[in-house]
Every structure is written in structure tokens, then in C-alpha cells.
Amino acid sequence: MLAPTNLDKPIVDTDLQREIEHFLSYEAHLLDTHQLETWDALFTEDGMYWIPLEFGQEDPLNTVSIAYEDAILRDVRIRRLAERHAWSQQPKTHSTHQVTNAIVTAYDAGAGTLTVQSRFHVVEWRKRNFMRQVAGGYVHDLVKIADRWRITLKRVNLVNCDGVHDNFELFV
Amino acid sequence: MAEADPTWVERLVEPARVHKDVYTSQAVFDLEMENIFGQAWVYVGHESQVKNHGDCWTTQIGKEPVVMTRDGKGDIHVLYNRCPHKGAKLAAEGCSNHKPMFRCPYHAWTFRMDGSLVSVPHKHGYDDTGFDVDDPNFSMKPVERVESYRGFVFCSLSESGPDLKTFLGGAVTSMDNFIDRSPDSEIEVAGGVHRVMQRSNWKIFFENLNDTGHPIATHESSFLAARKTSKHKLGGEVPFQLHIIEGNGEPPEFWESLDLRAFDYGHSFMTAIFHAPKGPVSEEYKAALDKAKGKEEADKIVAMNRHNTIIYPSCSPHTGFHQLRVIRPISIDRTMVEIFTFKLKGTSDEYWQRTISYSNIVNSPSSTVMVDDVEVYERCQEGMNSDGMEWISQHRGEGRDNVMDREIQSEGISEMPIRNQFRAWSHYMMATPASIPGSIGGES
Questions:
Q1: Are strands B145-149 and B152-156 parallel, antiparallel or unpaired?
Q2: Once rounded to an integer, what is the mean pLDDT over residues B6-26?
Q3: pTM attached to this predicted model
Q4: The complex's ipTM?
């Protein structure tokens, strides 16, 4: 028997595929243009932002993560970036996101839930000659509320999640 | 300062200031690798990281790659991680299991978990060559000394010197409290390891660990942000996850009221900034501790509430949140910090998840608190490279330390722990391995 979702063909129609790709591009656009409050509003009230530390990490509660942030912790990060004495943001970090290879891997039209996996490449610039590259895969769990897609979980799978890292100041 | 002058190291450290070369000179760094990391007891890992026969954990002691192993009898060994033949590292990076023996990936020499050579292929090729299976020169080399303090494994690359317990001195109370906080008096490494690279000298990080003068200035952005989140989003409520961010914004009187204690060999600790949250998780934990140890003893254990303890020059336990930071100098201006979280046997999942949460929020590379520390360390490193000024001040509280027998106490905002580190540093740096004194840094 085949797996429930045979992904060699799209499981959603072209319109929905384009809508979801637009959503991912829009989310990245908000991050790169420093519209962080608008970005944060894409999450549901209990939505989570997660950067696992281990490959294939299943559990954010019993294993440490590079980031596991609810609405409260995301709010602190956003407010901190706006603080005058955020020393590590003098000068500010700038980022540019590319998001590609979007595949909708689960869709339940009745429940209004959808999972999309994609690849990202982020370049960050802050000072001197230190151009930083961050790359990996995203998994977005989305839910449709009042005709808008909202994020219940944004999972960021870094290609070097188990590495020795410099600071992550912004959201990836 | 000219390195040709034989007193050059001595002249780098004065009671209330040090010369910038201690952070920026390659000659100093090289001598530190030899005289400090080649002599002191350096933290290797915890016994729970090598639970079973053949388990290995690799790390770096100064310049030396080493591997901690567990043999079939249950004994722990620390070996230089190199094949005696061509030098290939025998254990891969991190955790691995090599039961029943190491097999070199290059020419298939095999070694027991204690490092002794089992055999080599093409035996006849070694006839009459001077090669001997029983000659230790053809086995993996054990480090000079290994000791475990209640499961915390340290090694010394020097054959002589104080034993581990003497070395730890008064800082051993933090190790004890770390373990005693478990109702079963047993702890284990669990939950993954955060790794952070700092673009600064290793000593800058050590100095910061008990630097009570920095939080209000350095962490302003995160504690103000946390307070605004509390006010605007939570109606003024301060849950645990915000408390451990906004606590750095305590007023000057708070920092002045802290107690700082320092010991021989550069160790010290400061009393706590953060307090365990109230509520059912803490209550359940305390009840379990009361039951296991008796209420009076349990009260004493939780009352010993400390922030960072410094075990110079390699690690820093945080007893209340059950984590151990391991500090590895990579080069003059690169330091790797690894953060290990420990599970206390006999505690609930929710209690453990608080340890995980603390590490994510305060010590992860994405921490909104630590980013400003790391930035400031880097600015120090860059500024110290300037020839504009040569000396680094550590005057705060100088001359007001209360020197007792093998213990120094000072007021909360003193730079005493930093001066204490440099007392040890000077003694290490000026000693030859043969003349390392039994007591370092205590006789001020």
C-alpha cells in the first residue's frame, strides 16, 4: 500500500501551491524588512518558533534547542532589537532570505491545516567582512483562521544544527 | 612587553591591573597552553557520558585531543586521542562506542579501552625492528593523571601537583551541592549540548562569570525588553522565563549585597541572582528532597543558592539550574563554550524541562541575554589590540578583601574574583612543571 501522501505529484492544486509559496515569500519579506511585529502576528496565539539542536530532534521540551520560543519569548526578542542599548545590534544585522523547493506534505481541507516543507538560504550582514550564511530546511505547520494562514509551528532545521555557533540575533 | 626579558611574564600582572598582553600575545597563549593547561586539573567530562563498556567521549585539554573511555571492568580512562603509529585520532569527535577495542582507521592497529595495544597486522614485518607489542611507546598514551570527584572527571597533563580534592578547595562545595540537589544523589548528562564560539580570549569569559558589575550595563536591552513584555503582554506578571532575563536588571544595591568567595588555584563563586519559581513543580521537588534527605538537610541544600561557580581554568557549574559550562581556549581570540545540562535522578519531567528552558533562554547561541555578553567580549578583545593604552584595570574593591585561611571573601561588586584568577595565573605561568607549588594563589 502506498504511503498516505505520495509526493511525486502535488497534493494540492496549483492555486493553493502558489498561495502557500506566496505565504512563505511574504514571511521572509517581513523578516528581511524588519517588520517583526507583523511577522509575529502570522503566528497563532500558541504558535511556536523552533530551531532544533539535533538532527531529527522530536522533542523540544526534554532536549535543548537553539531556540524554542513562544509568543512571550518572541516578544522579548522583538522588543530587545528595538532597544537603544542592544550592544550586539550596533550596527544592526541585515538579512536576506531565499526560500525555495516548497512542497506541501500534508493538507486537510476540512480542518484547514497544512504542512509545507521548503529550503532556505539566509545571508546575514552586520560588520566588517563577516558575511554569515545560514541554510537548511523549514517545516511550517499552518492553520487557516478567518481565511488567513497562520503558523502553529515554524521549525527551522539548520544544516549545521549541531555545530559551534555564533549568535543568532534575528529570527531565521 | 619584550619576551626576551626573563621577567616578562611576572611584569604582566600587578595587584590592581594587568597588561593587555595577557589577552593578546601569542607567546602568552602558548605558555598558557603549556603551564596552565599542561598542569592544572582540567575538566574532561562526566562519568555518565561513558556509561557502558567501550563508550567514548572526546574533548580537548589545552592543545591536546583526548578521549575518555570506559573499559570492560567499569574503569574510566583518559587517553591522548592519537594512534601511536601515524597519529590518526582513534575516536571520532563527540560520543561513540568502540567496544571491544579501538581499531585505527589507517592501518588497523587495535587497542583496548585502557589504550594498551592488542595487535598489529603484518606481524612478521616487525620482526627484528625494535617494535614490541608490550612497549608502551606503541600503545595509546594515557594522560598523566586522572581523578573523578563524585563523577566529575578531571585530568592533569602533569605528573606532579596537588590531588583533585586539594585543587578544588572550597569550590568543591558547589560540586557537592550540584549532586546533593538530586534526591537520589545521582546526576547524569542529558538533553544535548549547546556550543557557542566567542571571538575573544578565554580569560575574558572566566572573568565575566563572577563580574557583578556588568549585568546592569551589558544586559540592559534584554532586561528592559523582558520588563516591557511583562507589562504589555502579561499585566505585570513575571513568569520563570522572563525572571531569568529581567533578573539582570536588579538595582545596584542588590549586586552590592551579594557574597563573593574565592579560593586557591583561581576558583570562586557568587551567591544567586535568580530564584527557583514557586509553584507545584518546585513544591513536588522539595518534598522529594525532604523525603530522601530529611527536611533539615534538604533545607540546607536548597538554601545554598549560588550563581556561577568558577573552576579555573576549565569549567563553571551552575548548581541551581544544573548546568556545567566547559570553556576551551581555541586561540588567542577564539573560545568555545559547551553547555552541558544535568538531569537530577529522582526529579520530575517538569523539573528537568525547567533546566532545558533555562539553557535555551540564557545559554543558547540564540539567547537574547548572552548575545550582548559575547558582543562585549569581542569589543574588549578588539580594543585591547590597540596600543593606545597598555593596562587593564581591576581596581574595583582592591585592598578591601577579607583574606582568610585558603578563602577570600569580598563585597558583592568587587573585582576580587578576577584578581584571584590572576594570582593563580601568575603562579602557573612562572612555574616550571617541576616546581609547581602545592598551593597556588592563596598566599597573597
A1: antiparallel
A2: 91
A3: 0.94
A4: 0.94
